Amino acid sequence: MPRKGGEDGGKRDKAAAAKLSKEARSWLWRQTKPELGFYLTGLVGAAITGLAMPAVGFLMARFIVVFYNVDVDEMRRDAIRRQALVFLGMGAAQSLGAGLRQAGVSFSVITERMVRRIRLAAFESILRQPIAFFDSSTEHTAGALANQLAADCHLLKALTGERAGLAVSQIAVLIAGLYISFDASWRLTLCIFGVIPAIVLPVAVQAKVVGRYAERANASLVRAASVASETLLQLRTIAAFGLEARAVDAFTAELSLPYKQDVLKGVALGVGSGTAAGTILFAAAFQYVVGALFFDADLISFSDIMSCLLVLIFMAFGFATVSRDVSDRAEAMQAARRVYKLVSTLSAIDALAGTGAVPPSGRAAGRIELVEVSFAYPARRDVQVYQGLSLTIEPGATVALAGPSGCGKSTLVALLERWYDVDGGRVVLDGADVRSLSVRWLRSQIGLVSQEPVLFNGTIAYNIGLGAAAAGEGGGEGGGEAAAAAVEVAARQANAHAFVSAMPDGYATEVGDKGVQLSGGQKQRIAIARALVRDPPILVLDEATSALDAESERIVQAALDELLRAQRRTTIVIAHRLSTIRNADKIAVVSGGRVVEEGPHDELVDREGGIYRSLVLHNNAGRVEL
Ligand SMILES: Nc1ncnc2c1ncn2[C@@H]1O[C@H](COP(=O)(O)OP(=O)(O)OP(=O)(O)O)[C@@H](O)[C@H]1O
């Protein structure tokens, strides 16, 4: 019976793939809408030029016949005049067709516009996805997605614009050729066009083979892109551990399959196009023989033999590239399915959607409640991080989260930021379930400083200003006087102003890629300033000093202590340092997926047998592993 299940599964997969292809095709068609007028004009032009090909063959045949058959001079002159006029007409039709084809101004422009639009939609779709989307699959690594934006979107060109015109033109060639040839002699046409399967079959098989190879080669290329992007993002670690050769090996290994498949694809393409090209001329040879037999049996005239033959030969010109086109389209269809899958993936947590409530005041008071929350990360369903966790944080209070490593302290931040949704229970901000709130607004209310500050390539002012830009308060390139003033205020609060002003270019100092030109402590203070520039009602410090050396930690800690003293805002602190935690209004100890102890430092430290007390008692040189 497993075989039957396998067959059913295979059928289901095939049906799902066919459905996806169909949807991808209609989606692609919808993408042409903004340029539909141009597009259709171009396609009509392509159809006319396609129709003209066999028609020219037919006229040539007539022309030859006139010279061969018509003996009387006067009649021949008439016939030649008629033929010349028809040729003139054909010339006009061709001009019109080619003109219309170009007037689609031209297909390449349409294609570029469309691909740009699709790329943008794909990029937006990536940004709309919840964080879980990026946790779960090798298809969704940074390298893989960047590859999709670049390579897949580029491949789509084979399904649109000039290439679509070519397909229409080839179909027109086939229809016109069949019609003219059938009209001349249905017998000979049936015999000759009986060989069409000999052309179509290898091309169809080749397209299928190429399509299948393309899918596997793409999977390898995606993995190669992941290896490349991971290597480039971790260059310092790679250098420190001497992992360059390993990275090259991993990259080479992933490229070997696409290489092999490219070779096979070349062979398939060669066989396909070779068979197609040869078959047309074999058909012509066959036509001579069969035509002669029919001629002897008085079943066909000389004129009709010539028509069938020349139509066939002119059709061969029209089909010269069909084999490669079919392959490219097969590859492009795979890419279209992948891009469509990406752009049609709806996100339950969409920061760009502009949906969800925004409280009338526009600013959160900062009361946070977690009510009976249960949660497991989508990528690791078997690890239940929270099971009925409840915690209330009053507006303006500073709450420290403590507990053993991996107990779920940072997860609380992830749920509050709505990077993930809870499986059970609720996360509530000022009385409203966070799922009902605008994601963009919710995140704009939280200033987050995390363990490893990530800066962007640009100036210090730009990096700090980004905090305000994200909250929709301008900023960006530090733009404007007000923004510049806010950036400086935030830098002062973060204890960063002194070192920034001491730099030759001050706030205009470039920080380099990911902030490499700054020290860890400087980067962290810029990150704190970035979180503060929006003056958030909720501040989250997630082990903000743990990655720093002792001196930098002291400086950053001083900035944070000052900050906590100076302004009452809801603050969640996750820290290993006892001094940060002991000053909090409340310490919540997380263990076994719940808050097991709650209260101020003095109270918890006196609790006999308490987890917090034991953590503090076992602390090492003023640093506790909480
Ligand atoms: N993105 C993720 N996907 C799957 N599991 C995750 C993910 N992030 C964290 N986890 C797991 O969830 C659990 C809680 O992680 P969390 O980062 O919240 O712990 P923590 O208390 O902050 O730890 P630490 O003090 O070591 O930073 C851990 O078991 C961790 O392995």
From TrEMBL:
| Organism from which the protein derives | Emiliania huxleyi (strain CCMP1516)
Supply one GO molecular-function term.
ATP hydrolysis activity
Give the transmembrane region(s): 36-65, 164-180, 186-205, 267-290, 302-322
GO-annotated cellular components: mitochondrial inner membrane
Recorded hits in InterPro entries, A to Z, give:
AAA+_ATPase, ABC1_TM_dom, ABC1_TM_sf, ABC_transporter-like_ATP-bd, ABC_transporter-like_CS, P-loop_NTPase, Type_1_exporter
| Entry keyword set | ATP-binding, Membrane, Nucleotide-binding, Repeat, Transmembrane, Transmembrane helix, Transport
Q: Does the keyword GTP-binding apply?
A: no
Q: Where is the ABC transporter domain?
A: 368-617
Give one Pfam family, short name only.
Answer: ABC_membrane
Tell me which domain of life the UniProt entry assigns to the organism this sequence originates from: Eukaryota
**Cellular compartments annotated:** Membrane
Protein name as catalogued: ABC transporter
Tell me, which GO biological process terms does this entry list? oligopeptide export from mitochondrion
Name the family.
Belongs to the ABC transporter superfamily. ABCB family. Multidrug resistance exporter (TC 3.A.1.201) subfamily.
- Domain named ABC transmembrane type-1: which ranges? 40-331
Principal subcellular localisation of the protein: membrane
Membrane topology category? Multi-pass membrane protein
